[in-house]
Specification:
The complex is a heterotrimer. By secondary structure, chain B is an alpha+beta fold. Chain B contains 14 helices and 26 strands. Chain B has helices spanning about 15-30, 60-65, 115-130, 190-200, 275-280, 285-290, 340-360, 365-370, 375-380, 385-405, 445-455, 475-480, 485-490, 520-525; strands at about 5, 10-15, 40-45, 55-60, 80, 85-90, 95, 115, 135, 140-145, 150-155, 160, 170-175, 175-180, 180-185, 210-220, 230-235, 245-250, 255-265, 295-305, 315-320, 320-325, 465-470, 495-500, 505-510, 530. The two termini of chain B are about 40 Å apart. The chains are: A alpha/beta, B alpha+beta, C alpha/beta.
Chain lengths: ~325, ~550, ~250
């Protein structure tokens, strides 16, 4: 039977929602227990939030002054000390998990599986390769399974549980060769970064002019979204080219992508193929974008966008 | 500006069948005579084969001469033509198979092979490098160098890292001079340096204008039960009308792959004709469609081809250089083959240049060409193109049959077609638009999805490589007169007329999509578009085309 | 300061890959191969260190069959001083690539190891981290800026929340992210020279590498095609549909 250890991601204040998704992946293994390890200076809100995740058996709170910030070289030896009791070790495939887990796998002498999309069996997993243009199914060799979990592929487990929190101390040689200096956050007040935004509002040639593109910015502001554009809009001079989404622009995977006046050339669709939900608004019912849009509205964007702005609540900043 | 300069004995422009054969031949001659020669080939594609596209059914005559042991050397020429058929398509559904005796003899394919020219070029490149030639890929020959006497002295590669506005980016790299006593220009059909050379040295003075076609090709992986390696199918007729020359091909290669496509002569008259859409609807005909049920399209590309034949061959030699292959135009239109003649003229160019390296003077390629089997076979088929142009497909075909099968190409007359392709368009007001069916996404597709499969890419921030002599002409002249046919003849959707309410119509150039086919350089009725090479390494990345 | 840069031969980023019909892998025959773009960026950074007088020798290494020598020659043309080919029938998975590179590092004693954060074929993003672990060295992944001092480096890392700054002692392993730099074009004369430079061959046996079992590839498939969803006929319906999916906070 499987016993899974999930490494929680947090910033000291809040548990990162990616952890709940990693737990969901853990549960797909049909395990007898799912423990969540929280590395911190002392008990904190994230540990408590982890304890509330449905399906979690225990939270292991590993306290150490050096655990104040997530430094891979400091966390890895601690995790590998814990790992001997588990059949599976998971972390979300965020920059945190991707930085950390391979180091652990190497210490344990086993391969690591990156970006698990689907659990096929206890040691068989499906993952994307070639930027998601192909999917490979792989089988890990005997030994502990170490894997990062592609968060977009798993729904977060709800916070309906109440697992016990156990304090653990681990004896380990804490390295001093890596020092966390600081984190400069992408400012919360500004528009989010296009590459990592949860919601993106995007405009195409249908906007007609740089001035009209303002309505895309307005809608993005209302939704707290990033702004994107098709190649045609960039070539026409409506927006600078760092907003370009597509094969030769940015390849993004937001939870929600709203495309206004975008025909949907394959080069553009290549940039959004991993988006969660694609919404398309275009006055041409034959626009190829409708072949991939989860929700399509045939209509004039110059009417639709003002109506949307009316219907959506104003954000409190 | 002071550029770095590298010295060679021979510089070859273009790593296609002509250029590669030329390089191999020079190195063979150098080896035979114990000379150490420095030969380089400069190629704008990111690798050999990246910009190579051809049907192709290959006649191994030149290969037999260049490498008699090509089989032992593992040349990728393995699928012999087993089955050869010609169909005349009548409308969307009907057709008749042309009986063998009615097919012009040169069009028959016993002893020939279905190949991928891209694969063959990669193999030729290996032979050339093994012989000691240097191949530089990802570098475009941007201009010709001349010495003080006005003779060709080599080429200069294009600057890299230049921004759209012409300024130098952080990774700016100036081009390098490749100097040699002799340069072999083998850029393929409608090479941009070839155009300049033909003007400067008046090489076309005694030749008919060159005539061209656009070839649009796809590679499909088909159901094994419908696949017959070595099966060769050609079609005439629908969807092209009697006034429009061209035809289709379906060649079964190995590994379940099929190459298919349509060639449309660029002297077509209707400005509303869209060669890409003609090709897409041609696939719907049962003769083609029969192979494509349950199949997947995996490749796409397009290229202009020469079809002027014997009468259009220009003078080939000039001080300091020669032209070889489709640069000059040796495609045999009756056989619809140009790869063997490209290779042979490459070899002849090599021999002429090798002699000139010792003796000095202008290489004697024109003389050696006239004595060669290339000239003989082109002469044999010289009336093919002009007959079709003058008499239309039906009567023209009958004439050709007589000319080829009864008279063996020896009719005591030579027809000429002196109307250049860019002068052939009727006015839009005198033409009818064509209602092409919408792509179904299964058998037929749109241009952008097709360009996607050609792996085409260009560095974004660079000057536009499609140069308009007068930027106003597309809207002020081509649009009212011809409905700006660039929107249609370009197989990569580079050219668009963008109309927005309350705004001036604008001619949009999506240079990113360009597959380097050169059709715009040929067909623009205003002769306003000049294709120059974009930054080296850009363009398609064809896989085994 | 000696810098070791690992470069991997991968399918060129411009090529749309096709999955083999039998699902055994991706079609590679006739397909253009290049240096992994992130490795190119790592190499560029090393070359800039050398030009700034901070590095004295750049050693490029690649693992795989004979063909990878093409990428090593590119690295030499761009500015690497030495090139090492470690021959293997196929490129190993990260766990063994790291073990091989660790043994090489023990022999070469570089002060810094640079490579791309991930290769664009397997997208694993593991080798640099594993290598650091095996050597007991610091790691700084997804670097978008590196400031080298004598015995330490300050690295700005691109993380989900923004930019994280780490200070690491040297020797260290640093992996390059996209925005670290814009690589230079190779110069034609340098390409010519690079063809005549020697490439050292070092086998895994020479290095005494102990391989561990790797994951087994069961099959490769194309991704499921996105299908069209539903059409709505009004903004109100659209908003309702978005609310239903929990997409409007």
């Amino acid at each position: 039977m499987s016993k899974v250890l999930v490494v929680a991601e947090h910033d000291g204040e809040a548990l990162n929602p990616s952890t709940a998704r990693a737990v969901a992946c853990a549960l797909d293994l049909g395990p007898e227990a799912v423990d969540v390890a929280v590395f911190a200076e002392a008990e904190n809100k994230p540990a408590q939030a982890a304890a509330r995740l449905s399906g979690v058996t225990r939270v292991l709170l590993v306290e150490h002054p050096a655990n104040r910030n997530p430094v891979a070289a400091i966390l890895a030896p601690q995790i590998s000390a814990l790992a001997k009791d588990y059949t599976h070790l998971l972390a979300p495939a965020t920059t945190f998990g991707k930085d950390l887990l391979p180091r652990v796998a190497a210490l344990l002498g086993v391969p690591q599986v990156s970006d698990v999309m689907r659990v096929v069996d206890r040691n068989v997993f499906e993952r994307p390769i070639y930027a998601g243009n192909a999917l490979e199914t792989i089988e890990t060799p005997p030994g502990i399974v170490v894997a990062t979990v592609r968060t977009a592929s798993f729904k977060p487990v709800p916070e309906t549980g109440s697992a016990p929190i156990e304090k653990i101390s681990i004896d380990f040689d804490c390295p001093s060769h890596t020092r966390f200096l600081r984190l400069e956050r992408s400012s919360g007040g500004e528009r989010p970064d296009l590459q990592s935004a949860r919601v993106v509002v995007s405009g195409g040639r249908g906007l007609g002019s740089k001035e009209h593109f303002g309505s895309i910015y307005a809608l993005a502001d209302r939704l707290g979204a990033a702004v994107g554009a098709s190649r045609a809009a960039v070539d026409a001079g409506f927006v600078p080219n760092d907003l370009q989404v597509g094969q030769t622009g940015k390849i993004i995977a937001p939870e929600l992508y709203l495309a206004f006046g975008i025909a949907g050339a394959i080069q553009h669709l290549a940039g959004i193929k991993d988006a969660g939900t694609i919404v398309a608004v275009n006055k041409d019912p034959d626009a190829p974008v409708f072949e991939v849009a989860d929700i399509g509205l045939v209509g004039d964007l110059f009417e639709v966008i003002p109506e949307l702005l009316d219907a959506l609540p104003k954000r409190t900043s | 500006m002071n550029r770095e300069s590298l010295e060679f004995d021979v510089v070859v422009v273009g790593a296609g069948p002509a250029g590669l054969s030329a390089a191999c031949r020079v190195m063979q001659l150098a080896g035979e005579t114990g000379k150490a020669l420095r030969v380089c080939i400069v190629e704008k594609g990111a690798e050999v084969g990246a910009h190579i596209i051809s049907g192709a059914v290959f006649e191994p005559t030149a290969l037999n001469e260049l490498f008699p042991d090509w089989r032992e050397r593992g040349a990728p020429v393995t699928v012999a033509v087993e089955h050869d058929e010609l169909h005349y398509l009548i409308g969307e559904r009907r057709s008749f198979k042309v009986p063998d005796f009615l097919i012009p003899k040169p069009m028959r394919n016993e002893g020939n092979y279905v190949i991928s020219l891209g694969r063959l070029c990669r193999w030729l490149a290996q032979q050339a490098e093994a012989l000691g030639a240097e191949i530089f890929t990802g570098f475009a020959a941007a201009d010709v160098l001349y010495d003080d006497a006005g003779a060709v002295a080599g080429v200069v590669t294009g600057d890299m890292g230049v921004a759209k506005d012409g300024s130098k980016k952080s990774n700016y790299q100036p081009g390098v001079e490749l100097r040699a006593p002799y340069t072999i220009f083998a850029e393929g059909c409608r090479g941009h340096l070839g155009r300049r050379l033909m003007d400067r040295f008046e090489l076309r003075r005694e030749a008919d204008p060159q005539h061209y076609g656009i070839g649009i090709k796809e590679i499909w992986r088909i159901d094994p039960s419908r696949h017959w390696p070595g099966r060769v199918v050609h079609t005439l007729g629908w969807p092209l009308d009697n006034q429009t020359e061209g035809g289709g091909f379906v060649y079964h290669d190995e590994d379940g792959l099929v190459s298919l496509g349509l060639i449309v002569a660029l002297n077509y008259r209707n400005p509303f004709l869209n060669p890409f859409d003609e090709m897409q609807r041609w696939k719907q005909h049962p003769v083609v469609r029969q192979f494509l049920e349950g199949a997947t399209r995996i490749g796409y590309g397009a290229r202009a081809v020469n079809k002027g034949g014997w009468q259009s061959v220009p003078k080939l030699s000039f001080p300091g250089g020669v032209m070889a292959g489709c640069e000059a135009g040796f495609l045999n239109p009756v056989k619809i083959k140009g790869n063997h003649t490209a290779m042979k003229t490459g070899m002849l160019a090599a021999e002429a240049v090798f002699e000139a390296l010792a003796a000095g003077g202008i290489p004697g390629l024109d003389e050696s060409y006239r004595k060669s089997w290339v000239s003989k076979e082109l002469f044999h088929g010289r009336n093919f193109g002009p007959a079709l142009a003058k008499f239309g497909t039906f009567v023209g075909s009958a004439f050709i049959w007589m000319d080829q099968n009864i008279f063996g190409g020896r009719l005591p007359l030579t027809l000429h077609n002196r109307v250049p392709d860019d002068a052939s368009l009727d006015r839009a007001s005198d033409s009818h638009s064509i209602d092409y069916p919408k792509p179904d996404g299964v058998l037929s597709f749109d241009k952008l999805s097709s360009v996607y499969l050609s792996n085409t890419n260009h560095e974004e921030d660079q000057p536009c490589h499609l140069v308009l002599t007068d930027p106003a002409v597309p809207i002020s002249r081509n649009w009212p007169l011809y409905d700006e046919p660039a929107q249609r003849y370009c197989p990569a959707a580079v050219y668009e007329i963008v109309e927005a309410p309350g705004q001036q119509a604008r001619f949009q150039i999506n240079a990113q999509n360009c597959v380097h086919c050169k059709v715009c350089d040929i067909k623009d009725p205003a002769r306003n578009i000049t294709w120059v090479p974009p930054e080296g390494g850009g363009g398609p990345n064809y896989v085994n085309m | 300061m000696k810098v070791l840069v690992s470069v991997k031969r991968v399918v060129d980023y411009n090529v749309r890959i096709q999955v083999k019909p039998d699902g055994s892998g991706v079609m590679l025959e006739g397909v253009k191969m290049s240096i992994n773009p992130f490795d190119e960026i790592a190499l560029e950074e090393a070359i800039r260190f050398k030009e700034a007088g901070k590095a004295t020798q750049i050693v490029a290494v690649s693992l795989g069959p004979q063909a990878v020598q093409e990428q090593l020659r590119s690295a030499l043309a761009l500015g690497a001083d030495r090139a090492i080919h470690i021959p293997l029938d196929t490129a190993p998975q990260p766990i063994n690539a790291a073990r091989i590179l660790a043994q090489l590092a023990r022999r070469e004693n570089p002060d810094l190891i640079l490579m791309g954060k991930q290769s664009i074929d397997d997208d694993c993003n593991q080798t640099p981290q594993m290598l650091a672990a095996l050597l007991g060295w610091p790691q700084a992944t997804f670097a978008s800026r590196i400031e080298l001092a004598d015995k330490a480096a300050t690295v700005a890392r691109e993380v989900d929340a923004g930019l994280e700054f780490l200070s690491v002692d040297l020797p260290a392993v640093i992996s390059a992210d996209l925005r670290l730099n814009i690589p230079r074009y190779p110069k034609l004369p340098d390409i010519m020279k690079a063809r005549r430079l020697p490439i050292e061959t070092v086998t895994p046996e020479d290095l005494g590498v102990e391989f561990v079992p790797e994951a087994k590839l069961l099959k490769v498939a194309p991704p499921p095609k996105r299908q069209a969803g539903r059409k709505v006929s009004s903004v109100a319906e659209l908003v309702a549909a978005l609310r239903e999916r929990g997409l409007l906070s």
